[in-house]
Amino acid sequence: MSSSLSAAQPAVPSTDRPGSPAPAGPVAGEPVASGPVADRVAQADTLLCADRQFGDSPAIGERNLARFRLGLTMLARHDGEAADVLRETAAASDERLRPLLYDPVLRNCFEVDLALLDSDRFEHSSFGAYVRGHLATGAAVDAPATTDAAPSAGSLAGPSAGPSEALMRPHRAAWPALGDAWVLAEPAPRGDAQKLLAERLMELYRDALGDGRAAGPVDPTDTTLAVLREGAELLATLLPAAGAGVLGHVSVVGFTSRESEEGPLQSMSGGDPLPSTVLLAPERCTSAWLAAESLLHEGAHLKLFDALRTGSVVRNATEQVPIPWRIGSWTVIRVFVALHFYVHLLVFRAAADAAGEAVRERFGPPPPAEDLDEPSPGTPAALNGEYRTSAARARYLAECVLSLPDESLTEHGHRFARWLLTALRLVDEDAPQPRERAATTRPVEPGPSRQDGPTGALRRVTPVDACALPGLGQLVVSPARSARMHWLNARSWTVYSLCDGRDLGSLHTAYARAAGLTPGSEEVGRQVGDSLRLLVASGLVTHDE
């Protein structure tokens, strides 16, 4: 990770559409495919994992690891005491970083550290302190896979569990055949460093529940764990792409019992307070079907949480949308989160209806689909008897998304909407039709125009920290004096790499050569203009007046 990475050029930028859906599945706007329900379910399952930004779990994971590496490097610049351990961690292999990135305590600390850095209130890295304590217990991060030597204490070498996972005694895997998720229990720390970590883990657990006096996690019975595993296996069997994909975003499964004004807790996903974690009432594991639906629900939220870390979908985070079955309104991003879940749920239920005899013999017949909880008292839906089913709510939320002004969403947001609505139409022919946008409707942002542009020499700012993802055609980069990360697609990355002191005319010529386009063409002007405008606005490129 260094400024030298920023000058590398990705391949074939002229045809790159980072994040666009892969050819698998139907194209947005086309009629729903004809054929048996099972065929449409299979198409929807494939489509839900096709989008490189929001559906492709390996791509989502790769971007989050890049963000993790870059974030640790940024923190190291501002914390001299923890700089060594932060840089050493950032340089570890992907295999050794994953248990740290998806550890609930460390992920929370990392996000808090970045938020403090962004608000200019950062002093010392809490992430660095916990990692140092983890290493002091003899944990390790990066030995060659072929070595037989045992790692030494305080090194970043050799495989190990994440810090919070190491507190679990006995250690219990959630679904051994499908991933590395583990079961949350009362921590059993050894030594002062683990005691501090255990206290923080339980503090996050209580904060996620919204009750500082909540009891610790429920110790699941062997039967509960067996049904949990069956539920995961059922989910991956019904939806081999989307089901298995959401499970990969779950690191921790905990069981809890909690009563509130709205009734007993059924399930929840941790989000920022308790990252990568799903909490379930033990009653959710009384059948494989119930467990599978719960894991899909909360796993889909965690997957979207990971995806949104590296690509925003809304321009105005406070814009509100009325929800007829709830008191008050939701933000647009909450509308997207709910629609994302409902689409996954409807695909799951369609798959359950189409399940063959082998599935029914192994897991039992699927239960009849139940209506959702009643609308909040006094709402229009409660008074009119509407919006009690997942399908009705999904259609309403889809209409809300389609009615938003173009300028409300980013380019990611518009593609996200088309992708979700295309998948929804495969299992619900009455859902609203996704639509394509005209190229001329994109909002114009401040900066140099496509035709005129800045005068003088164009230069990349230095120094920068950067992490390249050549397989995804993306570069994430941050100027050393900034607390912001900027995600460049293949086109912007190429323009950025060419800003080495040349003027705008030379930049156009060099870009046309790199992209295989006709020099002086309107397409070259558009691609260079769009990219350069964003690079200048983000402070990554300067120009002489």
Structural descriptors:
545 residues, alpha+beta, 18 helices, 8% strand
End-to-end Cα distance, whole Å, is 31 Å
The radius of gyration is: 25 Å
Low-confidence stretches: 2-35, 140-159, 439-451
Strand content: 5-15%
Shape: globular
**What's the rounded overall pLDDT mean?**
86
Largest sheet: 4 strands, mixed
* Widest beta sheet: strand line-up: 1-2-6-5
Q: Helices and strands: which structural class?
A: alpha+beta
Q: So how many helices? A: 18
* Helical residue percent band: 40-55%
Question: Helices, strands, pairings?
Answer:
Elements: H1 37-47, H2 57-78, H3 83-90, H4 94-101, H5 104-118, H6 126-136, E1 182-183, H7 192-209, H8 222-238, H9 242-247, E2 252-255, E3 259-260, E4 263-264, E5 267-269, E6 277-280, H10 288-308, E7 320-322, E8 329-331, H11 332-353, H12 357-363, H13 380-384, H14 390-403, H15 411-427, E9 458-460, E10 464-469, E11 474-479, E12 486-488, H16 490-498, H17 504-515, H18 522-537, E13 541-543
Parallel strand pairs: 1-2, 2-6
Antiparallel strand pairs: 3-4, 5-6, 7-8, 9-13, 10-11, 11-12
Helix pairs in contact: 1-11, 1-15, 2-3, 2-5, 5-6, 6-7, 8-10, 10-11, 11-14, 11-15, 16-17, 16-18
